[in-house]
Amino acid sequence: MVIEVDPAWAPGSFLTLLSDAERDELLSLGTTRKVPGGRHLLVEGRQDTQVEVIRQGHVKVTTTVGGAPRLLAIRLPGDLVGEFAALTGNGRVATVTTCGDVVATVIRQAGFLRFVNEHPTVATQLTVAVGRRLHWANRRRTEFTAFPVQVRLGRVLLDIATSCGEAVGDGVQIRVELSQTELASLIGAREDTVQRALRDLRRAGLVRTGYRRIVVLDEAGLRALTEQAEWI
């Protein structure tokens, strides 16, 4: 079966860092599959080592802390998942779950490593992609202690709306369903504190929320709120 894929890679994703020839060669190494929403592409703790390239849709990356899942990141079209296990040979450090239908190309560890070793520029771009992820994670950790919850929440919502947003009549709707528990884990806050912060953002006319749905109504206002905050 041939799966039609729209090559609309997310800005800054791994595939956008490669040349057309490198991208085509990488994708030719694997098998492309369509996975329904709510399915695991990778599971924390397992010893498999394949890499998956997200080609359509979005996935959530989670880890288990104290028996409960904690959201670490959202990956977009053009992103790699599973590269750490492929590079190190160690078990999976996180679970990757589809958000709605996802098209992904599965590449075996041996083929992926051979491709990276044969293309020094690809190895460099892989380092760049990993570095960006670490920078994002480190920035989040710094904000845990530097800014109040409302500011941290606003910054995360802006980041996600920029990467996973869709223009609607009165704003930008985040296309990934996010629970308050997941938002709390992203910004290092308690769920009840996130509830209050969302309430304040709604009252200020900056966002509209529904069940696992968020629309950013006033992007400029939300950005102004996050940029004017002082370090605490």
Automatic annotation (TrEMBL):
This is cAMP-binding domain of CRP or a regulatory subunit of cAMP-dependent protein kinases. Keywords: DNA-binding, Kinase, Transcription, Transcription regulation, Transferase. Pfam families: cNMP_binding, HTH_Crp_2. PANTHER family: CRP FAMILY TRANSCRIPTIONAL REGULATORY PROTEIN, DNA-BINDING TRANSCRIPTIONAL DUAL REGULATOR CRP. The keyword Cell inner membrane does not apply. SMART domains: cNMP, HTH_CRP. GO terms for cellular component: cytosol. GO terms for molecular function: DNA binding; DNA-binding transcription factor activity; kinase activity. CDD domains: CAP_ED (cd00038). It comes from Actinoplanes derwentensis. Residues 14-116 form the Cyclic nucleotide-binding domain. Residues 147-220 form the HTH crp-type domain.
